[in-house]
Design a protein that fits this description.
This protein is mainly α and about 550 residues long. Among the domains are: about 140 residues, Four Helix Bundle (Hemerythrin (Met), subunit A), CATH 1.20.120; about 70 residues; about 150 residues, no CATH class. The protein is built from 26 helices and no strands. Helix 3 packs across helix 4, helix 11 runs antiparallel to helix 12 and helix 22 runs parallel beside helix 24. It is elongated. The relative contact order is 0.04.
């Protein structure tokens, strides 16, 4: 007897999902992880039925594991195996959130399938009231899944196989995208688009058979595609998939209803309903959204206890947004006793997954001296990453500039800080708090830069950078709103200077009326050219 037959001996459904998980292990490890999670749900239901436990089998997997463990119906090893398979299944279900490589997914899937085998053993022992299991051989996964899938998709027109074919080409496109980015290229080319087109073709074929997962994927390709006239149709497909109980679609529809979209007006109670439905399937993104809605009374009564519960479940599933919300719960005492140590622990876990708000919050806590559990360099790293996130970019600019002024003092740091303050001022709404802070700190910083210019004449690169940044501020030290215009003016002045023209007027406009200090005409020029001042910058 092999492991497939052993799984079949427990139940036909168990055999089905174990077989799918094993068959997809090599070619589609993400889908294998999802099927392994479904297998864990079935095993929990078998345990509940065998022990006559008063646990609702319709509850989500996290709920079942917690209740079984609390009732002492499973030991710690079984609970750990179930939780590992649950968490890994969430990783497989949400590749966009975790952004792992093919090799990393395969490693996780192989480790997770071993946990499934141990769960099969436990399940058999429980069903038969024995401490032993029959001898069976664990077969090596065979990489012939693509051949079988292709035949069923093309010849038999099987909707599930067509969906899997779409996911396969979708994965190829994602890998190609990742390879291109790692190589530092910005043009994806025909090969990338070909993968996407083939994925869309298979999803389109399967959705005609009301395959709910394909309806969602096809809807997403239309809703996020280049043809804006198809956005409404795409969102309609997603809504249909949500109506068929697909958790990913329910979350997406919930987002449309919470924030509004082409097809949907804002409807908070309906958004809450869709998130709740997806949370029943242990969807971590849905749980994170529910946490925020309960915490703020959006579409429901304010309920801090529920906000904490949802954040905890989402965080324990490894979801970065949920980890960030849980950190906030522990920091503010929302639905739980305040615990600063746990707050920073969860905040760090979220930041390690590059969740922007977590990175920024942790960085400012480090620089502000609110925690000593991290290196000051961690703050610089996180702030630097946040500079590339549009939603918090200006906050990150000010935070990064303040970091440089405090922890890396010197003209070089001041030059970068002054540049950051000007960029923030240019990108911020007039008279916002952040805009006012940028003006104040920018004026203070650029004054110090200008005062230090004469001391770094010998360092041409630094002097040039300082001079350019100085041009982004007026004579009084206030930042300008248009960096591009100031840069053009500076370059024009540079060309005029090279042509031998007098540039005192333009320099005054640029706030650089005296780039070099005056000195006796017959002394060597301070710029270290070796010429006398009268023959150099004293002309």
């Amino acid at each position: 007897m092999n492991d497939y037959e052993f799984a079949e001996s427990i139940s036909a459904e168990v055999g089905k999902y174990y077989g799918k998980a094993k068959a997809q292990l090599i070619s589609l490890p993400e889908l294998s992880l999802i099927n392994q999670r479904s297998l864990a749900v079935l095993i929990c239901n078998i345990i509940i039925n065998c022990t006559s436990a008063e646990i609702d089998v319709r509850g989500d997997l996290d709920y079942k594991i917690a209740r079984l463990k609390k009732s002492n119906l499973i030991n710690f090893d079984v609970a750990d195996s179930l939780n590992i398979v649950r968490k890994n299944g969430n990783i497989g279900a949400h590749p966009d959130e975790y952004k792992l490589s093919d090799e990393e997914y395969l490693k996780i899937a192989k480790a997770s399938i071993k946990e499934c085998v141990s769960l099969l053993d436990y399940c058999y022992q429980l069903m038969h009231g024995t401490a032993s299991v029959p001898a069976y051989e664990i077969t090596e996964p065979v990489d012939d899944f693509l051949q079988t899938m292709s035949y069923k998709a093309m010849v038999e027109g099987d909707a599930e196989s067509q969906y899997l074919a779409g996911r396969y080409f979708q994965g190829r496109a994602a890998k190609y995208d990742d390879d291109i980015r790692k190589a530092g290229h910005g043009f994806f080319g025909q090969e990338y688009q070909s993968y996407l087109d083939q994925a869309q073709m298979w999803f389109k074929l399967a959705q005609h058979q009301d395959h709910r997962e394909s309806l969602y994927e096809y809807g997403m390709t239309l809703a996020n595609g280049r043809d804006k006239s198809m956005i409404g149709m795409g969102q309609g497909c997603i809504a249909r998939s949500a109506g068929m109980g697909y958790a990913e679609a329910q979350v997406r529809l919930g987002m449309y209803l919470r924030y509004g979209s082409n097809n949907f007006d804002i409807d908070l109670p309906e958004a809450l309903y869709n998130f709740t439905e997806a949370a029943q399937l242990d969807h971590p993104a849905a749980l994170a959204e529910l946490s925020e809605m309960h915490a703020n009374g959006l579409g429901t009564l304010l309920d801090n206890a529920k906000a904490f519960e949802c954040a905890l479940r989402s965080a324990e599933a490894g979801y970065p947004q949920g980890q960030f919300y849980l950190a906030d719960c522990y920091m503010t005492g929302m639905g739980v006793e305040p615990n600063e140590a746990l707050a920073y622990e969860w905040l760090a876990k979220s930041a390690e997954q590059f969740y922007p708000e977590a990175m920024y919050t942790l960085a400012t806590a480090i620089t502000g001296g609110h925690t000593t559990a991290f290196k000051i360099e961690d703050a610089k790293t996180y702030l630097n990453l946040c500079l590339h996130v549009p939603a918090i970019q200006n906050h990150a600019r000010v935070g990064y500039a303040k970091y440089l002024l405090e922890f890396e003092p010197g003209l070089e740091g001041m030059v970068v800080a002054a540049s950051m303050f000007q960029e923030c001022y240019e990108g911020e709404t007039e008279n916002s708090d952040l805009s006012k802070e940028s003006v104040s700190l920018g004026k203070e910083t650029i004054t110090k830069v200008r005062d230090s210019l004469r001391t770094v004449i010998s360092n041409k690169t630094l002097a040039q950078s300082a001079t350019i940044i100085s041009a982004y501020y007026d004579e009084q030290g206030y930042p300008y709103k248009n960096r591009a215009e100031r840069t053009a003016l500076f370059l024009d002045s540079a060309y005029s200077y090279k042509a031998g023209k007098n540039i005192d007027g333009p320099l005054k406009i640029l706030g650089l009326s005296q780039p070099y200090p005056k000195q006796p005409r017959n002394e060597l020029c301070i710029c270290n050219s070796g010429k006398k001042y009268k023959a150099c910058h004293g002309k």
